[in-house]
Structure formats: C-alpha cells, structure tokens
Amino acid sequence: MSEAPSPAVARARRGGAMPMAELHCHIEGAAHPDLVLAHAARHGIDVSGIIRDGHYVWHDFTSFLAAYDLASSVFRGEADYADLAADHLGRLAAQGAIYAEFFVSPDHASNAGLPPAAYVAGLSRGIERAREESGIEARMIVVGVRHLGPEAVERAARFAAEPRHPLVTGFGLAGDERTGTPADFARAFAIARNAGLGLTAHAGELCGPESVRATLDALKPSRIGHGVRAIEDPELVRRIVAEGIVLEVCPGSNLALGIYPDAAAHPLKQLVATGARVTLNSDDPPFFRTTLADEYAFAAEVGIDAGTRLGFTRQAIEAAFVDEATRRRLLERLGVAAIALGAPPAGG
Ligand SMILES: Nc1ncnc2[nH]cnc12
Ligand SMILES: [Zn+2]
C-alpha cells in the first residue's frame, strides 16, 4: 500500500505550489464573506440575503451582480479598503502568487459614500501592507461598469487618467456584457489610451464571439477579460493569435455562472492548443467558491502539464500593466521559483 502524499506534495500535484500571477480579479468580488459580515455588523447592514452558512448565495448572473453590489456596500472608508486589499493579497501570496492586478470600481466606492481618490488611496495602502508582509507585487485597473452606461464609464476613465495614481496602471470595462455595444465605450477607452494606461475589456463571457470581435474593433484592448467564447469562431481565434491578444481566462467563474456545464466542456485546453496567449484568473473568488490555486489545479485536472501551467504565470507577467523594471524583477522571481520547483518556466 502506498503512503499518503505529504500536504506539500499533494498541493504540488494539484498545481497549488506553482508560482502564480493573476491579471483578472475584482477587488469587491474578492471580499471574503467573513470580512463582509464583520463590516456589515459595524455599519448595521443586513447581508443575510446574500451570505448564508459562510458562503455567498446567488443563482444567476443578474443575482450575482446584485449580491456583489450589496457586499461592496459594506466597505465605506479608506481603512476598510486597505483591509480588503491586504486581506485579498495576503491570501494570494499564501497560495504562491507573486503578482496580482485587481479591478477597482470608483462607482462602487461612490455608491458607498467614499470619494474615488480616497478609495484608491485606501487600496494602495493595502497593497503596500501586503508587499511588506509577503513580498507580493500588485497594481490596480480602474473599471467602468458597462450597465451603468457610457457616461459613467467615461467618468471612470477620466478618474483613472487624471491625476494618475502610480499604482493605477490600467483601465477596463466590466459589468453586464449584454447591455450596450462596445462602440458606446470608445470615448472612454480613448481617454484611457491617451493617458498611457493598459487596456482590457470583458467580452466573450456571457455573449459569443461577435462580442469579442466588436470589442477588439471598437476598443483595441491588448487583453480580453474571459474571451473564452471566441473558441466558437476559428477565424476570430486566428486573429487573437496573430494580434497577440491576451486572454484572461477564469474557468471557476465560467463554471459557477453556468457558461459551461462542466470541466470537460470548458475550452481552456483548446484555447491553449491554438497558441493564444492564455492566463488563469479567479475573477470573484469567494462568490464562485474558487481561488487562484484552484484555477491552476483545474488546469492540471483537465490535462495541462506543469510547464504549460508555469507558462500561464510567465504570460501574465509578460502581459502585466507594469513598468519594465518591475516586469524584469518579476520574471527573475518566477525563474528562481520555477527552478526550486524543478521545472524552468516555458519560454524562459
Ligand atoms: N464575471 C464578471 N463579469 C462582468 N462583470 C463583473 N463584475 C464582477 N464580476 C464580473
Ligand atoms: Zn471579471
């Protein structure tokens, strides 16, 4: 009879010991239910409709967004957001992440009564605290919320652009992909592009390949949030590969939201096989009962080898919205971690 593997070996087999990097996670969506319960109690907010037995409850994309909005509303001050960012990044670092970008939504802060500048100041304090505690590096991507309309998204872009906070390095579009058309947000993306921000947009999550194509045409992002449904159109996949568009793939989110019925139906492996630049991400981890380590474990479970999984981390660092000196440092850290694991990273 063989002995049970040690926890470290079991974790390594699951893919959890890998050095990881994440490009796609919404900070409000990363709020652990315990943290939300604590802040809700302080502010006298009833969250019993969205948190039961320590887990978020929702049943479709619309009710997920409603739960997300209510959970967000319990974070009201600069210090609340510092705690949220530090908690999120501390959890990621404990899993093995060396770099993380997260989406920040000035509209959610404003709805909770906090001016966007104080929101970003609080989050950046959390980033600095986490860096001191664990060495994890992080940046913020301001997002406009699509279902709030083009004017709100332009307001978010102007906030991101001027004055530039040093840790805000990107601009993106989140929210309900089923509302409006990408062209509605072209002005917002022009503002962000002119400010030198990196660009990403959610597409090909709830809607099909036509949404990804229209997003690439109208907004010209270097990265697409999700993008998985591009697999339904081989011509579009060829374009994504040829243009080097990076896909921020979030399998746990896709499965939780029912975009795909099960792991076997998820196109992660096919996307990798096309040569597209793929990264792995957790999106809104406690809402979808996932973690970044779980996403890497998912990749292992669907048959993606360790070298390719390390390649996801390298890809994320190469596509990160950071200055070149930081990118070089992160790639060096990845190289050292990969050698310790006994496997040099793909392409490095
Ligand atoms: N999965 C998702 N898609 C679009 N907008 C979001 N905001 C938070 N999570 C999201
Ligand atoms: Zn997302």
TrEMBL record:
Keywords of this entry: Hydrolase, Metal-binding, Nucleotide metabolism, Zinc
Recorded GO MF terms: adenine deaminase activity; zinc ion binding
Cofactor: how bound: Binds 1 zinc ion per subunit.
Database matches in Pfam families: A_deaminase
Catalytic reaction(s) noted: adenine + H2O + H(+) = hypoxanthine + NH4(+)
Origin: domain of life: Bacteria
Names of the cofactor(s): Zn(2+)
Site positions per UniProt: Important for catalytic activity: 226
Residues holding substrate: 284
E.C. number: 3.5.4.2
Top EC group: hydrolase
Catalytic residues (positions): 205 (proton donor)
Residues holding Zn(2+): 24, 26, 202, 283
GO biological process per UniProt: adenine catabolic process; hypoxanthine salvage; nucleotide metabolic process
SUPFAM superfamilies: Metallo-dependent hydrolases
Residue ranges annotated for the Adenosine deaminase domain, each copy included: 19-334
Entry keyword Hydrolase: yes
Family: Belongs to the metallo-dependent hydrolases superfamily. Adenosine and AMP deaminases family. Adenine deaminase type 2 subfamily.
Function recorded in the entry: Catalyzes the hydrolytic deamination of adenine to hypoxanthine. Plays an important role in the purine salvage pathway and in nitrogen catabolism.
Name of the protein described by the UniProt record: Adenine deaminase
Organism expressing this protein natively: Aurantimonas endophytica
Upper classification of the organism: Bacteria, Pseudomonadati, Pseudomonadota, Alphaproteobacteria, Hyphomicrobiales
